[in-house]
């Protein structure tokens, strides 16, 4: 079981009545990739996944799997398998019959499909429970059975709709590692829908951030984290402060931006006209307590809230025309400069930690 397929989504839309759930998206997912579709509720992730699976008709555009255009094929003929959020196991069937179900639908002889189901249960280390029913299993075990059931058809791509959402936090992290291991060992393409940034960062080779039926950015996790393409991505990933204002100067690779209430900020960027609206993204974990090396690379604000997190401390500060600016300080740094709510505190950062964002969201 090692055939993997490229998934090529070309200008695909999904329209439900008056709602455009997916708006002409194009995306190429290389064969053998672990791809996470990430975004807030209602952004069109599930509709996209269901169109790849064939559970939802495509309003316009085309989807290819490997060399085949699958746009009009029924789910069972696409070479994909889907694992649902609720696992959708049959309560009255034992695990072998649950896993063998799709082979039964295809008319495979009983002995053959049962042997294959046992093989899949073994792959998921669930063969010892073969005669149990789903209700006699823990959440993590049910998930393994659901995976075995999806993989029995030998798919070229496995589609997973929020597969970890029903699990408690500890199990979530454990099953996350198992999913990643499984994908690497099978070598097939996984497309996994999630609204969790942490989950996508931990699992994906390719993160696709969606908003409002469109793709904001599709890139490796490190790029999405360090170089968000838009203000939406920077805000959604939560690792940057996003400062919006008008450009007052742009030269020598640095852009200066003035926010409405008079604060001035600088960041790495070029090609902006004076007076244009621009967004700067400032890494929350690179902000430090101290006077800035030059104006625009810091400000003095009032501490609004302090959250102790063990290895780090989250500081919320208001000032320079901003209601809320976040700094994540290492515990060592914070306790070397302890501050309290209501204190005035100078914050600073390096030029490279403040970057100009793309303009989709402004
Ligand atoms: N069957 C449907 N009929 C009408 N509108 C729908 C239908 N399914 C989804 N929508 C709408 O399409 C948009 C996208 O929905 P979708 O389920 O794809 O989003 P999502 O990103 O997966 O959200 P969630 O994380 O909440 O599952 C939403 O506005 C939703 O209300």
TrEMBL record:
Keywords associated with the record: ATP-binding, Nucleotide-binding, Transport
Domain ABC transporter, first and last residues per copy: 7-237
Organism of provenance: Mesorhizobium liriopis
UniProt keyword Ligase, yes or no: no
Gene Ontology terms, MF aspect: ATP binding
Pfam families: ABC_tran (PF00005), TOBE_2 (PF08402)
Name of the protein described by the UniProt record: ABC transporter ATP-binding protein
InterPro entries according to UniProt: AAA+_ATPase (IPR003593), ABC_SmlMolc_Importer (IPR050093), ABC_transporter-like_ATP-bd (IPR003439), ABC_transporter-like_CS (IPR017871), Mo/tungstate-bd_C_term_dom (IPR008995), P-loop_NTPase (IPR027417), Transp-assoc_OB_typ2 (IPR013611)
Keyword Disulfide bond among record annotations: no
Family: Belongs to the ABC transporter superfamily.
Superkingdom of origin: Bacteria
């Amino acid at each position: 079981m090692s055939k993997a397929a490229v998934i090529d989504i070309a200008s695909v839309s999904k329209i439900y009545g008056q709602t455009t759930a997916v708006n002409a998206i194009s995306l190429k997912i290389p064969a053998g990739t672990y791809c996470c579709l990430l975004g807030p509720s209602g952004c069109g992730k599930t509709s996209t996944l269901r169109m790849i699976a064939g559970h939802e008709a495509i309003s316009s555009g085309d989807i290819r799997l490997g060399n085949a255009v699958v746009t009009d094929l029924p789910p069972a003929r696409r070479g994909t398998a889907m694992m649902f959020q609720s696992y959708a196991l049959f309560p009255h069937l034992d695990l072998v019959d649950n896993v063998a179900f799709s082979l039964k639908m295809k008319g495979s002889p009983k002995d053959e499909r049962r042997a294959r189901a046992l093989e899949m249960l073994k792959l998921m280390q669930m063969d010892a429970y073969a005669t149990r029913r789903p209700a006699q299993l823990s959440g993590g075990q049910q998930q393994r059975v659901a995976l075995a059931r999806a993989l029995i058809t030998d798919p070229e791509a496995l589609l997973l709709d929020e597969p970890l959402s029903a699990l408690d936090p500890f199990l979530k992290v454990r099953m996350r590692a198992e999913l990643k291991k499984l994908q690497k060992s099978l070598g097939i393409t996984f497309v996994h829908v999630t609204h969790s940034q942490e989950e996508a960062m931990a699992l994906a080779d390719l993160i696709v951030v969606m908003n409002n039926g469109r793709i904001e950015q599709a890139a490796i996790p490190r790029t999405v984290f360090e170089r968000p393409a838009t203000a939406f991505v920077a805000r959604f990933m939560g690792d940057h402060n996003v400062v919006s204002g008008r450009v007052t100067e742009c030269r020598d690779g640095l852009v200066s931006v003035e926010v409405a209430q008079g604060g001035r900020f600088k960041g790495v960027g070029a090609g902006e006209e004076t007076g244009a609206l621009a967004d700067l993204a400032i890494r929350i974990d690179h902000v430090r307590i101290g006077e800035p090396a030059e104006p625009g690379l810091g400000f003095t604000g009032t501490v609004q809230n302090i959250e102790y997190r063990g290895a780090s401390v989250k500081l919320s500060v208001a000032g320079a025309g901003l209601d809320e600016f976040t700094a994540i300080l290492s515990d060592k740094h914070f306790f070397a400069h302890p501050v309290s709510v209501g204190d005035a505190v100078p914050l600073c950062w390096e030029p490279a930690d403040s970057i100009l964002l793309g303009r989709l969201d402004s």
